[in-house]
Write a structure and sequence with these properties.
By secondary structure, this protein is α/β, with parallel strands linked by helices. GO terms for molecular function: iron-sulfur cluster binding; metal ion binding; molybdopterin cofactor binding; oxidoreductase activity.
Length: 697
């Protein structure tokens, strides 16, 4: 008789490292002490509540992928050819250091631009590259591509980044999910919203520009045209004032310029908004009535609505609705966008903030194409960028204005080192490619923008091959280029412990014992009942747009044209005769930006690049299901497969992305069509704001 009993997997606590507001608390199977198995959500975390997305649940597909980078490599053929040879770590690091030092000798330190983003949200592995930047006075990195329009719009009203405890969705009577496909991009929102529906009979309303899986679960689906969120918000507030549902006692205490704003809204009627949004008047009226009659209305505001040229104005307009209704006063009422402002984490040692020189220029992440092609304005009068060190991001795929980005990376005089997990489009342009660890293979700390937990992600297994951590690579380069700072001599665990103590969050030992810390502010503060974040404690219905409420190197876009009060700001790329469609490049369910598009299950479930187009629009152009279509504008052209879909307004097309560039005919990915002109007032890219033509091939 066989008495052998298979060893049970060890279950270890961790945290999801990816660029998602959920930042889930995880339980990871460790098999044979050296590889991971199934990944599950932690049931004892009150926000994750045991639920995670499918792509992270099957994370072993990424860690053990046959195409994972395992060894340092040197390019041997033309840029982009994919021709590399294996070299040692010492040779690779020496070559990287020489590339950076050569640029510094020739054009000065500002000709080196360390470039990174959110491939990991771990504070040590993501942000440690800044310590090298500050120590060497390399060009600083202006992080603009994601949050700037949303955060500037939200904080312009509230005065600080925070809001109602997101777990209060579960005790709301009306959960409004606005501008985010939570089923695909932050699944835990649905956990708490559905709980409210089951236990309280709450209604779920979803406002979006196409019929997403989230909208399909809604009791009240509200389908609008892209970039028109501000018009709908104004019509709702018009109804609140008109029907006596504005909480005047609350407004008298907590808001400024109420009378002028009410006058402004007189003409922002449901009929006015219907003509702009495409939403029928009766749906606007019914929704406005419901909001007015439901004190516990919870506005869960996403990022998607902000990725238009009027994104900051739209965000501010939506955030103003619970101020007019007074919903902030009630448990389960108010608004929530991000809790990133509540953590107050001191990253001095991680980032080298004590040696930051504010006189060193900042270069705009979103405008990397203009930077690399030598635009004098974007270079702020400084030298050209001739060397880059890239971690945690794939700008050749995810950055806007792709044709210009490609021209920039093709320069023979540009030295590029990329530290990556896979041979991405950006890695293929590199001179040196370095293999990177994944989140279970290093120690780090995370904070949840979509909730209130500070989480530890400890090293669970050794990395495969010759993969090294971001921290190890930064420290090794620092020693070769003469960069000095105490943080380079510390281990990731020491940096985490220093940061926790400096932030008055206890010690690493304490966090290891607890796994995560709940740092949610008390009810009065979270609901702004002790005052909004401005000096006078009042919500700004009339924002001061010329003073962006987030750090920026200046004002961006046509900020002087921004409307005085919440409104529909018609600065978006409206259709023209030549380009009659509005294109939104929405996130795909099985990808996260360009991450996961290399894993077999995710790629299989998404299929190839497609364009969702209304059947009547398709018929008018002789387009049938599955036809190749060219989507084009003044920036370029992309080939996609047509998919007939009646869940959009006429004249709107959707491309769920980001597929690899090589998955498209001609190697031109969807960001060929997106612009890099900055969103007012604090910068950022308008990924969902593109006029295009669609032609059958």
């Amino acid at each position: 008789m066989n008495t052998h009993v298979a060893a049970q997997p060890l279950i270890r606590a961790s945290a999801c490292p990816h660029d998602c507001p959920s930042t889930c608390a995880l339980e990871v199977e460790v098999l044979e002490g050296k590889r991971i198995g199934r990944v599950r959500g932690a049931k004892d975390n009150s926000y994750t509540a045991g639920v995670i997305c499918a792509k992270v649940a099957r994370y072993a597909e990424r860690t053990e992928h046959a195409e994972r980078l395992m060894h340092p490599m040197r390019r041997t053929g033309p840029k982009g050819s994919g021709q590399f040879e294996r070299i040692s770590w010492d040779e690779a690091l020496d070559r990287v250091a020489e590339g950076l030092l050569k640029a510094e000798r020739t054009h000065g330190a500002e000709s080196v631009w360390p470039y990174f983003y959110a491939g990991t949200m771990g504070l040590v592995m993501r942000d440690g590259i800044n310590r090298l930047t500050h120590a060497k006075k390399y060009s600083r990195f202006f992080s603009s591509i994601c949050v700037n329009p949303a955060w500037s719009g939200y904080i312009a009203g509230t005065g600080r980044l925070g809001g109602t405890d997101p777990r209060e969705m579960a005790v709301s009577d009306l959960v409004i999910i606005w501008g985010t496909n939570a089923v695909a991009t932050q699944v835990n929102v649905m956990t708490h919203a559905v709980k409210a529906r089951k236990e309280r009979g709450a209604k779920i309303a979803v406002v979006d520009v196409y019929r997403t899986p989230t909208m399909e679960q809604a009791d009240i689906p509200l389908l609008i045209r892209p970039g028109t969120d501000g018009a709908l918000a104004c019509a709702l507030m018009h109804i609140l004032f008109r029907d006596g549902r504005a909480d005047r006692a609350y407004l008298e205490r907590y808001a400024n310029d109420v009378a002028d704003f009410e006058g402004h809204l007189k003409t922002r009627t449901p009929e006015w908004a219907s003509a702009i949004t495409g939403l029928p008047v009766e749906e606007i009226e019914a929704f406005g009535k419901l909001v007015g009659e439901t004190p516990r209305s919870f506005f869960r505001i996403g990022y998607g609505l902000s990725r238009s040229r009027n994104g900051a104005v739209n965000m501010h307009a939506i955030a103003s609705i619970p101020v007019i209704s007074g919903a902030w006063q009630h448990e389960g009422g108010g608004a929530f966008h991000s809790n990133s402002g509540i953590f107050r984490t001191r990253k001095t040692m991680i980032e080298g903030l004590d040696i930051l020189d504010p006189k060193v220029r900042q270069l705009d992440q979103s405008r990397i194409g203009a930077v690399l092609t030598g635009d004098p304005e974007v270079l702020a009068g400084g030298p050209p960028v001739t060397a880059m060190l890239i971690q945690n991001t794939n700008p050749m795929s995810i950055a806007p204005d792709q044709e210009r980005v490609k021209r920039g990376f093709a320069r023979d005089d540009l030295f590029v080192a990329v530290h990556e997990q896979f041979m991405t489009e950006t890695a293929r342009q590199a001179d040196i490619v370095l293999p990177a660890t994944m989140f279970t293979e290093h120690d780090d700390i995370y904070q949840g923008g979509g909730h209130q937990h500070l989480l530890l992600g400890p090293k669970l297994v050794d990395p495969p091959g010759e993969c090294r951590t971001n921290h190890d690579v930064i420290c090794a380069i620092a020693s070769r280029v003469g960069a000095e700072h105490p943080g380079f001599a510390m281990s990731p665990r020491e940096l985490i412990d220093w940061t926790l103590n400096a932030s008055q969050r206890g010690s690493l030992e304490n966090l290891e014992a607890q796994r995560f810390l709940d740092v949610q502010p008390e009810f009065e503060s979270a609901h702004f009942l002790s005052g909004f974040g401005h000096k006078d404690g009042r919500y700004r219905l009339k924002p001061d747009w010329k003073r962006p409420p987030i750090p920026t190197p200046g004002l961006f876009g046509p900020w002087e044209q921004m409307p005085e009060f919440p409104d529909h700001w018609a600065i978006i790329e409206e259709p023209t005769e030549e380009h009659p469609f509005r294109l939104v490049t929405a996130p795909a369910r099985n990808f996260l930006n360009s991450t996961f598009n290399e894993t077999p299950t995710s790629a299989k479930r998404e299929g190839g690049p497609t364009l969702l187009i209304h059947p009547e629009d398709a018929d008018a152009r002789g387009i049938a299901e599955g036809d190749d279509v060219e989507v084009r504008n003044l920036r370029g052209a992309v080939t996609l497969k047509a998919k007939l879909f009646d869940g959009v307004r006429r004249g709107v097309v959707i491309a769920e992305q980001i597929h690899p560039n090589f998955a498209h005919q001609g190697g031109r990915g969807i960001n060929t069509l997106t612009g890099a002109d900055p969103v007012a007032p604090a910068g950022g890219a308008a990924f969902h704001d593109n006029r295009v033509d669609v032609v059958k091939l």
